[in-house]
Amino acid sequence: MIAFPRQIVSLVSQFAVTVHAVVRVDLPQNPAAAWARLPAHLQCALNEAVFSITIMTTQNTEKRQKAKQEDESEFSIALSRDDINAMPIDRYHGPVTVARDDADVRRACQTLTRERILGFDTETRPSFKKGVSYQPSLIQLAGAHRVYLFPLPDHTLPAPLKKLLGRADIIKTGVAMDYDLKQLRAMDEFEPNGFIGLEPMAKALRIKNQGLRGLAAALLGFRISKRAQCSNWSRADLTEAQITYAATDAWVSRMLYLELNRRLEEAERKNGQLETVSDA
Fold first, then answer.
1. CATH number listed for the domain at residues 81-271
2. In this structure, how many other beta carbons lie within 10 angstroms of the beta carbon of residue 226?
């Protein structure tokens, strides 16, 4: 029995056509027999090739592992997907008001002007066809004691809501707000003010997870469900599951801002050298 490296068997098997072209012989189906038929110089060349490939693969693996370790060492908090999935699920349990008409919108916006910090988010009907997109269908604003939902059936922003979103003295906070505001402004132009993203705050604290779900797990100790994310947000009457989902996102955004701000202030007191977070 002729002994030959296992890697050589793979090479011979995968590149039989090329080998046949080089040595001008038909190779048997059996890898051992095929190896035995190869000229000595080709066996030697293949051995050297496998050795070089093994060395390079080992070096690349070591480099990737080292880079990953260095990357993770840059963060004070870095949760994996498994870490997040191991967290208990929680949601918003407080009161929710859905502003269904102009009178509801006026009352809601008047109440929200008394708030200092609002959790902000939007929802859009998902598209499952290439090239098809939809305008935002819902705006969520969370105050200290209640979450308000503003359906946008006509894809226009009511004047009181525009005014509220333009108030620089009221903080509106959330994640990926640049995209949300771009979509809203493409739908109905207004001048947004007082928007502060959670991502720069998390970055200043060296937190790797900067999405809403990851931040909730990292800072609040629970994960939020995304089950209703791809539901039809343009429907006339939102389901209870949609209302809870939408309210939870806005509520969590406000809670995260408060926690991130607390940690930033604490860190500044300790060393006074953190990145400045400014209005978006």
1. 3.30.420.10
2. 11
Q: Taking the CB of residue 156, how many other CB atoms lie within 10 A of it?
A: 12
Asked whether the beta carbons of 93 and 221 are under 8 A apart, the reply is no
Residue 101 in tokens: 């008409």
**Torsion from C-alpha of 48, 54, 59, 65, nearest 10 degrees:** 180
Under a CB-based contact definition with an 8 Å cutoff, are residues 164 and 157 in contact?
no
Query: Where are the domains positioned within the chain?
Result: 6-73, 81-271
pLDDT digits (tens, 9 = 90+) for 35-52: 676 777 777 777 777 667
Give the tokens for residue 210: 């900067």
Q: What's the whole-model pTM score?
A: 0.71
Q: Report the alpha-carbon distance of residue 265 to residue 279 in Å, rounded.
A: 16
- List, for residues 145-165, the tens digit of each pLDDT value: 999 999 999 999 999 999 999
Is it the case that residue 276 has pLDDT exceeding 70?
no
Phi, psi of 261, rounded to the nearest 5 degrees: -65, -40
Neighbouring-strand partners of residue 140: 121, 149
